[in-house]
Design a protein that fits this description.
The chain is α+β, with helices and mostly antiparallel strands and about 500 residues long. The protein has 3 domains: about 90 residues, 2-Layer Sandwich (Phosphorylase Kinase, domain 1), CATH 3.30.200.20; about 200 residues, Transferase(Phosphotransferase), domain 1; about 160 residues, Roll (PH-domain like). About 35% of the residues lie in helices and about 20% in strands. A 7-stranded antiparallel beta sheet has the order 15-14-13-12-18-17-16. The protein has a 5-stranded antiparallel beta sheet with strand order 1-2-3-5-4. A hairpin with a 3-residue loop joins strand 4 and strand 5. It is globular. The chain starts with about 25 loop residues before the first strand and ends with a helix. Bound molecules: adenosine-5'-triphosphate. Adenosine-5'-triphosphate binds next to strand 1 and strand 3. Belongs to the protein kinase superfamily. AGC Ser/Thr protein kinase family. PDPK1 subfamily. It catalyses: L-seryl-[protein] + ATP = O-phospho-L-seryl-[protein] + ADP + H(+); L-threonyl-[protein] + ATP = O-phospho-L-threonyl-[protein] + ADP + H(+). Its main location: cytoplasm.
Length: about 500
């Protein structure tokens, strides 16, 4: 990272025990945005007095009240302050001003587990075993407090600089009564995410600590296979698969991995490995899949080779380069100076951005597929694409880049899956209903304009489209669009 004077980390004890004086916004120097949630922006910040670095989650009070999310925010604060374990994001302090609420969290800047799986395709056995063990260790702590996460998924598992997991997002967590066994299902409203939701919640609207063990089974599968165990073109069909526990393993799948997944993906919560009736965490940790794991050394051990190697990758360097430039700016000046910074980053890069091309159309951190593929490579990608739920919309053409963007029109903001297809074609789909919603018409007058790391505009002669990429890759979309325009429209 750049010399920005924000290097030291807070000690590992949360500020809830040592918070002597309420902090204020003025106590911090704000840096780049680390992430955007539906209700918050998470910004890197340095405490001026101590030089300590925090991820500050900022929530707009007005928005929270309007969206009726006050109980969720209170729950998140309450649950986070009960947790004291290295594999969870730590809450060090909270404060507020008239407009906003601030949560001071430990920094987890190495991205989400979901991104890592996407970027690597899948994890090798050593890597999957190591991170499964960290998740198990975290869940053991969580469940010992009778707390159910209820939305455990790779998006909510972040990595810190040491490449250790940091589980986050406790807005939908449920605290069970202390005298509850934790294993007995309790009525719950629907929360969670389709691919990881447990059958008991779908069937009886009930939840228990073993519901997180179901999600763990899905995550271990996803790490090793690179895809969800339960996946269908829409939520309804995904739920049907979950209720029937219908999923398949690829051929030659590791025997022990298969066994632990099967023992976690049990329709009946009490039959899941790790639930109290199945020997609790002792039995789960003793499963053969975890052979070689030293449970008391998980925190001090080096991360697996695959992950170490990946984090040194060019894509990470690429992001660091951008961060280096923006680190020196206050958050407020960030957007104004955006274009200047980008051109500085570009100047620093050697060669054309074709060199930075990632070989995957849905690699959210990359530039998608290159345009000048050989016939053989094109066929290969077309074949691979056939297993994707988006293939149908490409109508036999190759998807060059895709990803979720928010499309703003007037006061309405809609989440859409954008597919940039050979031709060129730029279409967008409602990811919930899987309906094609529209197309941005190409012409040589189409122009992409970055506005910040998240926001960009696509100008066409008749309309300007306002788009937001929550994973901060607006510039990569713009570059890809310009690249395609040059390829198809310049004579
Ligand atoms: P949602 O309800 O949409 O999940 P939210 O408003 O509760 O979102 P979070 O999910 O907590 O917000 O955070 C939004 C994003 O910010 C995350 O996806 C992650 O990329 C980033 N983020 C959150 N916490 C941290 C952290 N401690 N360190 C670094 N980045 C973080």
């Amino acid at each position: 990272m750049a010399e920005n004077g924000v290097k030291s980390e807070p000690e590992q004890s949360p500020a809830r025990s040592s918070q002597s004086k309420k902090k204020r916004r003025e106590d911090f120097r704000f840096g780049p945005t680390l992430g955007e949630g539906s209700y918050s922006t998470v910004v890197l910040a340095c405490e001026i007095a101590t030089g300590k670095e925090f991820a500050i989650k900022i929530l707009q009070k007005r928005h929270i009240i309007k969206e009726k999310k006050v109980p969720q925010v209170e729950r998140e604060k309450k649950v986070l302050s009960r947790l004291d374990h290295p594999f969870f994001v730590q809450l060090y302090f909270t404060f507020q001003d008239t407009e906003q609420l601030y949560f001071g969290l430990s920094v987890a800047r190495k991205g989400e587990l979901r991104e890592k799986i996407k970027q690597l395709g899948k994890f090798d056995l050593e890597c999957a075993r190591f991170y499964s063990a960290q998740i198990v260790s975290a869940l053991e702590h969580l469940h010992s407090l009778n707390i159910v996460h209820r939305d455990l998924k790779p998006e909510n598992i972040l990595f810190n600089d040491k490449l250790q997991i940091q589980i986050t997002d406790f807005g939908t967590a449920k605290e069970l009564p202390q005298d509850d066994s934790g294993d007995s299902p309790r009525t719950s409203s629907f929360v969670g995410t389709a691919q990881y939701v447990s059958p008991e919640l779908l069937k009886d609207k009930e939840i228990c600590t073993a519901s997180d063990l179901w999600a763990l089974g899905c995550i271990i599968y996803q790490m090793l296979v690179g895809n969800y165990p339960f996946k269908a073109p829409n939520e309804y069909l995904t739920f049907q698969q979950i209720l029937a526990c219908k999923y398949e393993f690829p051929e030659e799948f590791d025997r022990e991995a298969k066994d632990i997944i099967e023992q976690l993906l049990q329709l009946e919560p009490l039959e899941r490995l790790g639930s109290k009736t199945r020997g609790g965490y002792q039995a789960l940790k003793s499963h053969k899949f975890f052979t070689g794991i030293e449970w008391d050394k998980l925190l001090t051990q080096d991360p697996p080779k695959q992950m170490m190697q990946h984090s040194q990758d060019s894509s990470d360097e690429d992001n660091d380069e951008v961060n280096e430039v923006i680190d020196n700016f206050e958050h407020a000046s960030f957007i104004d100076d955006f274009k200047k910074q980008i051109s500085e980053v570009d100047k620093k890069r050697k060669g054309s951005h074709e060199e930075l091309v990632q070989s995957d159309p849905d690699d959210i951190t990359g530039y998608g597929l290159p345009l000048n593929l050989t016939k053989h490579d094109r066929e290969k990608w077309l074949n691979k694409q056939q297993t994707s739920q988006w293939d149908y919309f490409a109508k036999g053409k190759l998807i060059l880049k895709r990803g979720q963007l928010e499309k703003k029109r007037g006061f309405s903001i809609k989440l859409r899956e954008f597919l940039l297809v050979e031709g060129p074609k730029l279409i967008y789909i409602d990811p919930n209903t899987m309906e094609e919603k529209g197309e941005i018409p190409w012409s040589q007058d189409l122009r992409a304009e970055p506005k910040s790391f998240r926001i960009f505009f696509i100008h066409t002669p008749n309309r300007t489209y306002h788009l937001m990429d929550k994973s901060n890759n607006a510039i990569k979309w713009c570059k890809k669009i310009e690249q395609i325009k040059k390829f198809y429209f310049s004579s």
